[in-house]
Write a structure and sequence with these properties.
4 helices; 132 residues; three-stranded antiparallel beta sheet
């Protein structure tokens, strides 16, 4: 093999590597663009927020009907329809008694306050007298 043939092979090998690198970069960019588009297509509207993978994006619901529909869904999820008489959310009870929410949880756990639990077992409120 002559010197000239060696140089041509060497140069053609470098050109092939450069072309493959450029093609790889273009294909990567296309795949990223397609990934972004398909993620946008997978976006699911969830009432007042839109679910994007693991993050939530807040948005205002301008349509009053849709806003009311969202409110009923949230009330159902939070089980607000089945409130007991005198039941107060933890934050409101903490404000009324002048203590922290953690203190309200501890008092409910000890039995000093009557706690109201969600069906999943989580403390959702306490029963307070009207004068408290």
């Amino acid at each position: 093999m002559s010197e000239r043939e060696r140089r041509v092979r060497k140069i053609s090998g470098r050109i092939a590597i450069a072309v493959l690198s450029a093609m790889s970069a273009v294909i990567g960019a296309v795949l990223i663009a397609v990934g972004v588009i398909s993620k946008r297509d997978r976006t699911v509207a969830v009432g007042k927020r839109r679910f994007h993978g693991h993050a939530f994006e807040r948005r205002w619901i301008s349509d009053p009907e849709e806003r009311q529909h969202h409110a009923t869904i949230v009330a159902k999820r939070l089980d607000l329809d089945s409130r007991q008489p005198g039941e107060v959310p933890l934050t409101e009870a903490a404000e009324r008694l002048g203590v922290s929410v953690a203190t309200i949880r501890r008092r409910a756990k000890r039995g000093q306050l009557e706690g109201v639990h969600h069906p999943n077992g989580r403390l959702r409120g306490v029963i307070l007298d009207a004068e408290t």
